[in-house]
């Protein structure tokens, strides 16, 4: 087990630089304990007791490098989190118009499937591109099986219609039904280095930029806005804002924006 005394300031800075360069996530002194805890878990799994040895490993082993980035950038999410954005869309948009939606930084898929079940219930025609930098999160999204505590906020009517209860070893889980899964495509995409190849009517990038510094946030917003159609909607997390950034978006509700044109 790794204790805080085993991680020197130099090692902390080096690991933080690696994470920042790859994901844009800032692991400063306030995130020190998080970095140590998640680093320790990877070291236990790899049966490595030396931080220096682990740093050498991730510099030469691509698979473990990806596992380390996954471990340090993955955050907890759940269904129907900050659902006011979706409620706004349901009231505002015409169900007859087909929609292309991007759930950027989609984590394990809860956001994308939350949107899907509500849009389906209101007879919208749509497809969702769900992207994340984490291979492990994308795998979970494609599997579409979630513990019961992740779906506690899902209305019963939608639970019965779009989810299947697990049995046996999965008794405390639910699975998203195929009718919902087929409308969501999970793919790897790095918000810092990737270039969007499509355009979208709606983009969600929520509760990820709070971990970025201002230059990184500006770069991500520029990148995402280039993929947003004129008249399209852009949503960030309720704890986030674009107030200090340059963009061509107009605020339409808290953390919700409309692209001019």
Task: Tally the helices.
Answer: 10
What proportion of the residues is helical, as a percent range? 40-55%
**Major beta-sheet overview:** 7 strands, mixed
Q: How big is the Rg?
A: 19 Å
The largest sheet has its strands arranged as: 6-2-1-7-8-10-9
- Please give the number of β-strands: 10
The coarse overall form would be: globular
What class would the helix/strand composition place it in? alpha/beta
What is the distance, rounded to the nearest whole angstrom, between the alpha carbons of the first and last residues? 55 Å
User: What pattern of helices and strands is seen along the backbone?
Assistant: HHHHHEHEHEHEEHEEHEEE
Strand coverage percent: 15-25%
Unreliable parts? 1-5
Q: What do the pLDDT scores average to?
A: 92
Helix-strand blueprint:
Blueprint: H1 9-23, H2 32-46, H3 51-60, H4 62-73, H5 84-92, E1 99-103, H6 110-121, E2 126-132, H7 135-143, E3 145-147, H8 156-162, E4 163-165, E5 173-176, H9 178-181, E6 184-188, E7 200-204, H10 214-225, E8 228-235, E9 249-253, E10 256-259
Parallel strand pairs: 1-2, 1-7, 2-6, 7-8
Antiparallel strand pairs: 3-5, 4-5, 8-10, 9-10
Helix pairs in contact: 2-4, 3-4
Kindly describe this structure.
- This protein has ten helices and ten strands.
- It has helices at residues 9-23, 32-46, 51-60, 62-73, 84-92, 110-121, 135-143, 156-162, 178-181, 214-225; strands at 99-103, 126-132, 145-147, 163-165, 173-176, 184-188, 200-204, 228-235, 249-253, 256-259.
- The chain has a seven-stranded mixed beta sheet with strand order 6-2-1-7-8-10-9, covered by helices on one side. Strands 3-5-4 form a three-stranded antiparallel beta sheet.
- Strand 1, helix 6 (110-121) and strand 2 form a beta-alpha-beta unit.
- Helix 2 (32-46) runs antiparallel to helix 4 and helix 3 (51-60) packs across helix 4.
- The longest helix is centred in the N-terminal third of the chain and has 15 residues, at 9-23.
- The radius of gyration is 19 Å and the shape is globular.
- The model is unreliable at 1-5 (pLDDT under 50).
